[in-house]
Amino acid sequence: MNVSDSELMAGILTRSGHQTVPHLDDADVVLVNTCAIRENAETKVINRLKHLHHRKRRHPELIIGVCGCMAQHLRDRLLDAAPYVDLVMGPDAYRDLPVALDSLARGVESHVSLTDRDPFVGLRLDKNEDYADIAPIRKEGIRAWLTIQRGCDKMCTFCIVPFVRGRERSLPLKLLVEDVEKLVDQGFKEVVLLGQTVNSYHNDRADFGDLLYAVGEVNGLERVRFTSPHPADATDSMIDAMANSPTVCKHLHLPLQSGSTEVLERMHRTYTAEAYRTLVSKLRERVPDISLTTDIIVGFCGETDAEFMETYQMMADIRYDSAFMFKYSEREGTLAHKALPDDVAETVKGERLKQIIELQENISADINNAAVGGTVAVLVEGESRRDADRYYGKTDGFKTTVFPKADSHIGEIVNVRVHSTTAHTLIGQKV
Ligand code: SAH
């Protein structure tokens, strides 16, 4: 989503006559696009800003901006910690970027001293802002990110997203299909639909399943993916499209968060562990060979050993292809921060995380090993970083696959017989 928002900002700024430069050292303006989801994301940003500050000491005319969720989340505190920041702009205010840069540049021209210059702050959240008219500037490639929905209405107690990205709003279906047609014309082969709870998409009477079908039918498009859906919005309409549209990939990233119904309740996830298991059975029945991945949080407020073990057991039973696993990180302003103590010791969180990572690594390796001897369809993305004689690409189920180039080329789908695997990669030969 951050990549997609950066492309949007590049679109807005390019339209008003600015241009991106390949090297940081050539830039007059540096915008740091940020995430607020966990504390370590914020720590990374502060370190990046310190680094930029060194450059600004030598080049006082350099304009430094902080954009995105952390800007929205930390506002004044960010300016206290990094007073050299010229611009703070949240996710619904990017239209003001050109005006902000103009006014800051005027300050630079009139030699207003650095300390006297007021930062430009744009933090209004606007439930009508969907940037529908802005054409993002994308890097050339095979895969394009397409934001179909902004904001979030779910209110999970651990999550900062609704507070920094505002209310949920969907873009018009017709416009999105036209966008995908343009992307195909530009040479993209795969589109990833993006939204915070992407499958709660709705536009007039169309739902997410309708959108998947419509996008899947665009001529010349090889693959459609999406991230991240919410289990409570995994409707039959979505499952139908995954089962029946040949373009829609049979890969679902389905964040579980916890395998304990009590913890899920404290998280306000709106489903039980049992309902999630039933959904997984239905998905596996209706979409054979579906690859499932997930997000897990350990050490959420009040999580007991027994509740944690329910998560462990659920991961062992479901056997995800892969998982993103996190220690709970309390975020100021969330419902949990206000109402539930962050009472699981850091060491316990660390130990639990270690246990599920080990479990998941073994499961992922087993699933990969089971692919040996079989053939997978790989959309070729580019040259392998480690070996110039090989290409890499993804399977329909989103597994990275590496194989000798031979007579294949970037952008085509090739059948690869898998002969071996590493921890996260399939290795094979074109057949
Ligand atoms: N709306 C997206 C959320 C993106 S954040 C979705 O539902 O998929 C990606 C993941 O970060 C979440 O699924 C969750 O597992 C994790 N996460 C969010 N807030 C967190 C927090 N406060 N501490 C730890 N992990 C968190």
From TrEMBL:
<dbReference type="InterPro" id="IPR006463">
    <property type="entry name" value="MiaB_methiolase"/>
</dbReference>
<dbReference type="InterPro" id="IPR020612">
    <property type="entry name" value="Methylthiotransferase_CS"/>
</dbReference>
<dbReference type="InterPro" id="IPR007197">
    <property type="entry name" value="rSAM"/>
</dbReference>
<dbReference type="InterPro" id="IPR002792">
    <property type="entry name" value="TRAM_dom"/>
</dbReference>
<feature type="domain" description="TRAM">
    <location>
        <begin position="369"/>
        <end position="431"/>
    </location>
</feature>
<dbReference type="InterPro" id="IPR013848">
    <property type="entry name" value="Methylthiotransferase_N"/>
</dbReference>
<dbReference type="InterPro" id="IPR023404">
    <property type="entry name" value="rSAM_horseshoe"/>
</dbReference>
<comment type="similarity">
    <text>Belongs to the methylthiotransferase family. MiaB subfamily.</text>
</comment>
<keyword id="KW-0949">S-adenosyl-L-methionine</keyword>
<dbReference type="GO" id="GO:0051539">
    <property type="term" value="F:4 iron, 4 sulfur cluster binding"/>
</dbReference>
<dbReference type="GO" id="GO:0005829">
    <property type="term" value="C:cytosol"/>
</dbReference>
<keyword id="KW-0004">4Fe-4S</keyword>
<dbReference type="InterPro" id="IPR058240">
    <property type="entry name" value="rSAM_sf"/>
</dbReference>
<dbReference type="GO" id="GO:0046872">
    <property type="term" value="F:metal ion binding"/>
</dbReference>
<dbReference type="InterPro" id="IPR005839">
    <property type="entry name" value="Methylthiotransferase"/>
</dbReference>
<feature type="domain" description="MTTase N-terminal">
    <location>
        <begin position="1"/>
        <end position="106"/>
    </location>
</feature>
<dbReference type="InterPro" id="IPR006638">
    <property type="entry name" value="Elp3/MiaA/NifB-like_rSAM"/>
</dbReference>
<dbReference type="InterPro" id="IPR038135">
    <property type="entry name" value="Methylthiotransferase_N_sf"/>
</dbReference>
<feature type="domain" description="Radical SAM core">
    <location>
        <begin position="138"/>
        <end position="366"/>
    </location>
</feature>
<dbReference type="Pfam" id="PF00919">
    <property type="entry name" value="UPF0004"/>
</dbReference>
<keyword id="KW-0479">Metal-binding</keyword>
<dbReference type="Pfam" id="PF04055">
    <property type="entry name" value="Radical_SAM"/>
</dbReference>
<protein>
    <submittedName>
        <fullName>tRNA-2-methylthio-N(6)-dimethylallyladenosine synthase</fullName>
    </submittedName>
</protein>
<keyword id="KW-0411">Iron-sulfur</keyword>
<dbReference type="GO" id="GO:0035597">
    <property type="term" value="F:tRNA-2-methylthio-N(6)-dimethylallyladenosine(37) synthase activity"/>
</dbReference>
<keyword id="KW-0408">Iron</keyword>
<dbReference type="Pfam" id="PF01938">
    <property type="entry name" value="TRAM"/>
</dbReference>
